[in-house]
Design a protein that fits this description.
The structure holds 2 protein chains of 2 kinds. By secondary structure, chain A is of the alpha+beta class. Chain A is 17% helix and 24% strand. Chain A contains 3 helices and 13 strands. In chain A, strand 4 (135-139) and strand 5 (144-150) form a beta hairpin.
């Protein structure tokens, strides 16, 4: 088929997940029609029972104070994904109890999310080791990076340079990450600061999922 | 633990900045009640926006995983629905941003009422009317191919046989029918 939009429509017809493609205005108009038509099938009437039950269980895990699976945004889809900053901003919500909801938007400067297909939450530090403003390196074998606490939030970024894959060093006084190979530097939040050669800035360092379990700071990564 | 989940700088949809204040005032007994009452509605709403089960399931998951944490269950049914809807809007927007890069479909929180998405009812609001509008404006054969393919689940081969044309012709016919239905081809042009 010569048109990308035809492949998109074909996926809808085959009840598959359509793949992204760079659409033209015409493609978008056609996709809208196809979506409206595709929404008329019985599939659309109610969700699968297995799905409803599975999501209920995940929500239950989320509500209970015991170890939970990674949040939805990190659920692996298909193959391992190295997202090259698909979303320009990541937004995290904070909780207060006296309102219906309360949100604190936070713009992150780091790159996309790096999430393992298989793995688990692994402790990389204790909260006591990581006071406000501190940065610590961690190494889980196949995954290494830097974890920090900033404005009360824990954030982790990959510790591998996005140029040629060398391992970054934490440069005292802990304000930036430096690459030993070509001297590129990144902020501890992951955004590229400088590179000695080349005119374009390097991609930002991928972020890693972090959670706090008791006094353990955990990163979601592949189990060895 | 609950607080810790929110430390993750995920691509979580931004919560709505305006707090819902509307009625009905009845409250849900628990988060499970919120979920049980609304999961079908959110799923059906999402399906009308993405047209496939996989994305509809993912987006439904995101809505509840995002929304249930910050929701207090003492909020009224109306407040909860408004919040779910607002969350759904940002979840969908984020989905399109990361896939096709354009807002292909949107959720208009002022126009959509989750009450209309009651489980077991006929296709909600716009779907049936929209379907009629899409198909009625087409020449007969274009209407036929879209009906066979989308509504009756024919493969391209079966649809081609039914219409007495080659598979290649059926593909072209389908493409043109969608173009025409999208308002891209004028009357009399290409059919």
């Amino acid at each position: 088929m010569k048109h990308a939009i035809d492949r998109y429509v074909d996926s809808l017809l085959r009840r598959r997940r359509p793949k992204p493609f760079p659409p033209t205005e015409d493609d978008l108009a056609m996709a809208r029609v196809a979506i409206d038509l595709a929404a008329a099938v019985p599939d659309a009437q109610r969700p699968r029972e297995a799905f409803v039950e599975d999501l209920r269980r995940r929500l239950s895990d989320q509500q209970e104070p015991h170890p939970a699976p990674p949040p939805a945004a990190y659920r692996p889809r298909g193959r391992r994904r190295f997202l090259a900053a698909l979303t320009a901003t990541g937004v995290a919500a904070a909780v207060t109890t006296d309102l219906v909801v309360s949100g604190t938007a936070q713009t992150t400067l780091a790159g996309g999310d790096l999430t393992s297909d298989t793995g688990g939450w692994q402790t990389v530090a204790h909260t006591a080791d990581l006071p406000e403003g501190a940065v610590l390196p961690f190494d889980l074998g196949t995954l290494n990076g830097f974890i920090r606490r900033q404005s009360g939030r824990f954030q982790a970024v990959s510790g591998v340079c996005t140029h040629q894959g060398c391992r970054l060093h934490l440069d005292t006084p802990q304000t930036k990450l430096t690459c030993p190979c070509h001297g590129a530097t990144f902020s501890v939040a992951g955004e590229p600061l400088s590179r000695p050669h080349g005119s374009h800035p390097l991609p930002a360092l991928p972020r890693l999922p972090v959670r706090i379990d008791g006094d353990h700071v955990q990163v979601f990564g592949p189990t060895a | 633990m609950t607080a810790a989940r929110h430390e993750v700088p995920a691509a979580r949809p931004e919560p709505p900045s305006v707090l819902p204040t509307v009625l009905p005032t009845a409250a849900y007994a628990s988060w499970e009640a919120i979920y049980a009452d609304n999961v079908d509605r959110i799923y059906r709403l999402m399906y009308t926006k993405v047209g496939n089960r996989h994305d509809a399931e993912d987006l439904t998951s995101q809505v509840f995983l995002t929304a249930l944490g910050p929701l207090r269950t003492t909020a009224s049914v109306g407040e909860v629905r408004s919040y779910l809807l607002a969350t759904a809007r940002t979840v969908l927007a984020s989905h399109w941003r990361s896939t096709l890069g354009h807002q292909v479909t949107v959720i208009d929180v002022d126009a959509v009422d989750l009450e209309d998405f009651t489980p077991g009812h006929e296709p909600p609001g716009p779907t049936a009317e929209r379907l009629g509008a899409i198909l009625s404006g087409l020449p007969e054969r274009q209407r036929a191919i879209l009906t066979l393919r989308f509504l009756r689940g024919y493969s391209i081969k079966a649809a081609a046989a039914e219409l007495g044309v080659s598979v290649a012709n059926a593909k072209v016919l389908q493409h043109r029918a969608l173009r025409r239905a999208a308002g891209l081809d004028k009357e009399g042009e290409a059919s």
